[in-house]
Write a structure and sequence with these properties.
Blueprint (H helix, E strand, L loop, with lengths): L9 H16 L3 E4 L14 E4 L16 E4 L5 H9 L3 E2 L1 E4 L4 H10 L4 E4 L14 E2 L8 H6 L15
Parallel strand pairs: 2-3, 5-6
Antiparallel strand pairs: 1-2, 4-7
Length: about 160
Amino acid sequence: ATQMGPMANARRIEAMKRLTKDAVEGGARIETGGTPLDRPGFYWPPTILTGVPKEARVLHEEPFGPILTVAPFDTIEEAIDEANATDYGLAAYLFTGAADTQQKLVSGLSAGAVSVNYLKGVSADAPYGGVKQSGYGYEGGEQGVRSFQILKMVNGLGSFG
């Protein structure tokens, strides 16, 4: 029955407040959400920001919370440039019915995972990890298991006698 669960801790609520406030002070508009919910726990409502200035912190830090920024673009290349203009790249999501647009975005977006017309999580047997400053290695799949291994090469074993 849960539609939106809590954040991990009080620090995340403070981060949501800080990022939203910074964006609004720079000229962004809150379309929905934007203030903490008045209830026990670490709940922040889904928040949509429009008109977010390019220097806003929310575009340069991973919020790890339910904040969505919406920005217009004129070309697919401009959208890719804007999406890649961050030091982070955990996941990207796109929605389009045009095969050529899908191909341009999937190949152009710098993210560890790109979801096309799909919002659900990845399966446990699929490798998943970010690029740039997002994540540490991979989880899931064979690549995820490899991150727990230490490889060692041994040469010249023979008799000691």
